[in-house]
Write a structure and sequence with these properties.
single chain; alpha+beta; 4-stranded mixed sheet; globular
Length: 344
């Protein structure tokens, strides 16, 4: 497909006006990457009726800078929605996407972002079937915002929720934590720190669904799966403790943290527990299926670092207790105000 734009071209208000420039943008960027029999060419996509219960989610993505080590806002917009569906035990089926683009945004950069979305969709085996584009005046949008909505087909018998954690359950995290937040912080260049940290941004539907099947379809033994995105693992654990009216105890030495992330957070006085992840999930399950969960996730690149980090208890309901490296126990504070770094 021949492009009609040059490398120096930028988004103009005309690209959002619905005329020729809009058609060119759709033709040169979106149609080039978003293909398939379900892609809408009319006012709405027509998709097959899903027979089982569905999971449906929507999320907005505002990332500065739009490109960071390990990904960009396009990859992130697919991973975030796909992972939310997978955490409900759903096979992602269809996505829609909406773009709010600032006047003056480089079209070549938009091409990179949309190409990344298509590549990530292919890895997650999900199709984008409809979308929308709006162009905002200069200064009304910080470069580019993306909103994605997803529909997934829930596996038969699965029912997970932050309300289902039970005393005695194991708490697991699917890999080292805090890398996305650390990568975004460094990409902004505000601190003049050079560290080799790459975002963990990745689609997780394949390993999560494999894990559920590996439990022998004892779905009721996997009680909670939560995507530890904004606010990180610490915030997710507080939400689960509150929703399930249980206490949570985690062991600091067992929490996987990349050495570079540990060094950065130590230098800046931040906690990896409250840094965003974009390719990590917290899993709470009955101990009898923990070996199956760990074995299944260790077979996948993005979840091979899975670790058991704690236990659900009927003590101190609604709170999270941290057992430190020196053997003391402290209540992990619930985050208040604005988390740093602010990622969206």
């Amino acid at each position: 497909m021949q492009n009609t734009f040059s490398p120096d071209d930028r988004i103009t208000l005309a690209h959002g006006a619905g005329g020729r420039k809009t058609s060119e943008l759709i033709h040169d960027i979106f149609a080039k990457y978003f293909k398939g029999p379900r892609v809408a060419t009319d006012d709405a996509a027509v998709v097959p009726v899903i027979g089982s219960p569905i999971a449906m989610t929507t999320d907005g993505f505002i990332v500065s800078p739009w490109r960071f080590p390990g990904g960009n806002i396009g990859k992130l917009s697919i991973c975030g929605t796909v992972n939310d569906l997978a955490c409900m035990g759903a096979t992602p089926r269809f996505l829609t996407c909406a773009f709010q683009i600032e006047e003056g945004f480089p079209i070549a950069d938009l091409d990179v972002i949309v190409a990344s979305m298509a590549e990530t969709c292919a890895k997650a085996h999900v199709d984008i079937c409809a979308g929308d584009t709006k162009v905002a005046g200069k200064g009304q949008v910080d470069g580019l915002f993306i909103t994605t909505t997803g529909i997934g087909e829930i596996l038969p018998g699965i029912e997970t929720s932050g309300k289902y954690a039970k005393p005695g359950d194991d708490i697991l995290v699917s890999g080292d934590i805090g890398r996305h937040g650390a990568a975004i912080l460094l990409a902004r260049g505000d601190y003049g720190i050079d560290a080799d940290i790459t975002s963990d941004c990745a689609p997780l539907s394949e390993p999560i669904l494999h894990m559920l099947r590996a439990t022998g379809y004892h779905f009721k033994d996997v009680h909670t799966i939560r995507d530890a995105t904004r606010g990180g693992v610490g915030t997710v654990l507080h939400e689960i403790a509150s929703d399930s009216h249980v206490g949570i105890e985690i062991n600091e030495p067992d929490i996987p943290v990349d050495p570079a992330v540990a060094g950065l957070t130590g230098l800046l006085g931040l906690s990896p527990l409250y840094l965003a992840c974009e390719g990590r999930v917290v899993i709470i399950c009955d101990p009898r299926v923990t070996p199956d969960v760990i074995q299944a996730l260790q077979q996948h690149e993005n979840t091979k670092g899975i670790k058991r980090i704690g236990t659900v208890t009927d003590n101190h309901a609604g709170h999270v207790m941290l057992k430190t490296e020196i053997g003391t126990e402290v209540l992990l504070p619930e985050p208040t105000g604005e988390l740093l770094p602010r990622i969206c």
